[in-house]
Amino acid sequence: MTQIILENARVFDGVSEECPDGMSVLVEGGTIREVSDRPIRADDVRRIDVAGKTLMPGLIDMHVHSYFSDLDPRVLNDRDAPYRTAYAIKKLGHALDSGFTTVRDIGGGDYPLAAAIADGLVRAPRFFYAGKILSMTGGHVDYRTPNEKHHTHGYCSCDAMNWAGVIADGVDECIKAAREELRRGAHCIKIVASGGVMSPSDPIWMNQFREDEIRAIVQECVERRTYVSAHCLTSESTRRSVEFGVRCIEHAAQIDAETAAFVAERGAYVVPTMVCLYSLVEQGLEMGLPGDRMDKLRAVYDDSMAGLDVMRSAGVKLGFGTDLLAGFYPQQTREFTLRREVFSPLELLRQATSVGAEILMQEGSLGCVQPDALADLIVVDGDPLKDVGLLAAEGQHLDLIMRGGDLVKNRLG
User: Fold this and answer.
1) Are the C-beta atoms of 83 and 70 separated by less than 8 Å?
2) Which CATH superfamily, name and number, covers 3-57+366-410?
3) 187-to-160, 198, 312, 345 alpha-carbon distances in Å
4) Neighbour-count burial for 182-202, b at 16+ CB within 10 Å, e otherwise
C-alpha cells in the first residue's frame, strides 16, 4: 500500500487556533495514519516537503446542485440526463481544483452520479447527496407557472419525478417520498419549508408543509440515523422547521435575533449561501433570470449580510455553502471573500472544514487532520489564518490537493 509523508508542515487541524510548525503527516492508502511533531521514520515511502506551508483539511461545500446548469429549472428537464451529467462533471472538477474535497448535493444529485464518482469515472470531490427535494404542491420546487392547470414535466408524485424534486402532499405521501429517496441512497432528506426565488408561484414569506408532514419526514430520517435539511429564507419558516425537528437550515437569509437564538439553543445548523445571492443580483438579468424572480431576489439580498452578523452573535453553528447555479459556479471560492466581512479567518476555516463534517455526521473522518481520518488534505501557500483570501482564488494558492490519499495536484515535487 502506498505511503506518503507530508513533512515540515504548519498544520491547521480543522478546529484549533494554534497551528504548530514542523509537523509530519503519514498517509497510507486513503487514510491518515500518524500526525507527529517529529520526523516520521518509514522505509519505502514517498516524502513531500511542505516547506513550512499550511496543511489543512480539504474544504467542504455543503450546498451545491450538481445538475443545475440553467437558471430556468424547467429547461433542465428538457435537456435530459446526458447534458446535466456533462455539466456536473465540469462543475465538480472545478470544485476539486479549488480545494473542495467534499461536497453535499442538496437537491438533484443521485445514485448514478455518486456511483460514477466512487468508481473513479468522474474526477470530483467526495460526494454526499440528498436526492430529490420534497415539495408540497405550489411549493418552492413546483416549477409550474400559475397558467398551468395540471402536473407536467413529471411533477406528480404518483407518476415520475422531475430532475430536482417530487411533489408530496399529506403525511402518507411525505413518508413515501422520503422513504423512496432514502432507498435510493440519499444521505439526508431536503424539504422546502418557505417560498423561494427560483419558483414562480410562491411568495418568499409563505410557510410550506404542515407540522405533521414535517414531523413525519423527520421521523423517517431518524429511523435511518440521518437528518432533514430545510430550505428556509424567513425567520418564521426557520423557527418552525427547527421546532419540528429539522437539523439543518439552508440560507436563513432573513433571520432575526430571536430566531437565531432559538436555533443556537436547539443545536441546529445553518448553511448560508451568500455568493449565490450576490452573483444573481449582479448578473441575473443578463443571464436570463425573469424580472419577477429578480424582485424576489433583491428582497432576500437586502437582508442577507445582516443575517450573518445576527447568527454570529447568537452562536449559531454555520456550515459553508455556495448554491451557485448555471454558469456562476467558478465563483465558488468567492464565498470566503463575502463572509470575511463578518467572520474571522478562524471562524471561516472551521465553517469550511470541521463544522461541515459535523453536519455530515462525519466527525473524525472529514474536516480534520488526525489519525484514522480520511486523507482529504490541501496545502496552502501561506497562512489562511492570517489571510483567508488565499482560499478565495479558485485554487491558485494551493500547492497540493489530496483526496482519499490520491494526489489531485502537487506543486511541491
Assistant:
1) no
2) Urease, subunit C, domain 1 (2.30.40.10)
3) 21, 24, 27, 29
4) beeebbbbbbbbbbbbbbbbb
Asked if 258 and 219 count as a contact pair (C-beta separation under 8 A), the reply is: no
Residues 111 and 171 sit within 8 Å (Cβ to Cβ)? no
Low-confidence ranges of the chain (pLDDT < 70): 149-161
Residue 312 phi/psi, 5° resolution? -60, -45
Cα 185 to chain centroid, rounded: 17
Residue type, 285: L
Q: Got the DSSP string for 268-285?
A: -EEE--HHHHHHHHHHTT
pTM of the predicted protein model: 0.96
CATH number for the 59-332 domain, one of 3.20.20.140, 3.30.450.20, 2.10.60.10, 3.40.30.10? Answer: 3.20.20.140
HSE of 91, CA atoms in CB hemisphere, 13 A:
29
Q: Where are the domains of the chain?
A: 3-57+366-410, 59-332
> For 346-393, what is each residue's pLDDT tens digit?
999 999 999 999 999 999 999 999 999 999 999 999 999 999 999 999
Task: Identify the pLDDT of residue 151.
Answer: 57
Residue with cell 437539523: 247
Cα 298-303-306 angle, rounded to 5 deg: 150
- Identify which of 87, 32, 78, 86 has the alpha carbon closest to the alpha carbon of residue 55: 32
> How far apart are alpha carbons 405 and 131 in whole angstroms?
27
DSSP string, 240-270: HHHHTT--EEEEEEE--HHHHHHHHHHT-EE
**In sequence order, what are the beta bridge partners of 271?**
250
* CB under 8 A, 24+ apart: contacts of 247-252: 247/359, 248/188, 248/319, 248/359, 250/63, 250/106, 250/190, 250/321, 250/323, 251/300, 251/323, 252/307, 252/311
Cα–Cα distance for residue pair 153/163, rounded to 1 Å? 9
Question: The dihedral of CA 284, 285, 286, 288: what is its sign?
Answer: positive
Sort 230 into a burial class: Cβ within 10 Å, 0-12 / 13-18 / 19+: buried
Q: Which region, left, alpha or beta, applies to residue 129 given φ > 0 means left and ψ of -120 to 50 means alpha?
A: beta
Cβ atoms within 10 Å, residue 94: 17
Task: Quote the CA–CA distance of 409 and 377 in Å, as a whole number.
Answer: 11
Q: From start to end of 312-397, where are the E strands? A: 317-318, 377-380
